[in-house]
Inverse folding.
């Protein structure tokens, strides 16, 4: 089984994916590792991931990740991956190709209250995950403006806090979708 969590920056999809993997023995596949890295460090000396800004860039990242799926699915028959997946064509491509290696593939859209997203992004900044709250909020706004909602049949999960109860609620949603 492959659980695919999509959602805008600050929705909590990554910590949910990590906790889901830990609690239920899923492998957490890090698609961020397939993204392009800035060739020079930021002000803090950290190399940062360049966010894809076009569907073509997203497709390139997804193709790179999907090349690993034949072996990945043999090594880890149950996995979870998280990414924004906010654009329809790249999302459909990823899910279609992932189904060649995993069955079932369950896509869940993770959403949250916008004020909670700001708090979560501030927490990300404090942990050093993001260099700038303002820049991250701008990326979220850009993604929101370009958002192509998943089909109405896609399960949706509203994140309010990342705790064991939320992870259990998400797992129940995944299990109902199998």
């Amino acid at each position: 089984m492959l659980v695919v969590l999509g959602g805008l920056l600050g929705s909590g999809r990554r910590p949910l994916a990590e906790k889901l993997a830990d609690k239920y023995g899923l492998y957490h596949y890090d698609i961020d590792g397939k993204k392009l890295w800035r060739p020079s460090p930021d002000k803090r000396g950290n190399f940062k991931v360049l966010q894809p800004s076009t569907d073509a860039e997203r497709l390139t990242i997804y193709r790179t990740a999907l090349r690993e799926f034949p072996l990945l699915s043999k090594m880890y028959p149950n996995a979870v991956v998280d990414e924004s997946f906010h654009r329809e064509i790249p999302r459909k491509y990823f899910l279609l190709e992932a189904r060649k290696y995993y069955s079932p593939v369950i896509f869940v859209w993770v959403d949250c209250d916008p004020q909670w997203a700001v708090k979560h992004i501030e927490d990300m900044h404090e942990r050093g995950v993001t260099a700038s709250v303002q820049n991250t909020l701008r990326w979220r706004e850009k993604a929101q403006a370009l958002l192509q909602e998943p089909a109405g049949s896609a399960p949706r999960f509203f994140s309010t806090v990342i705790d064991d109860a939320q992870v259990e609620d998400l797992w129940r949603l995944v299990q109902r979708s199998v």
Observations:
- The mean pLDDT is 91.
- Residues 29 and 125 are 23 Å apart (CA to CA).
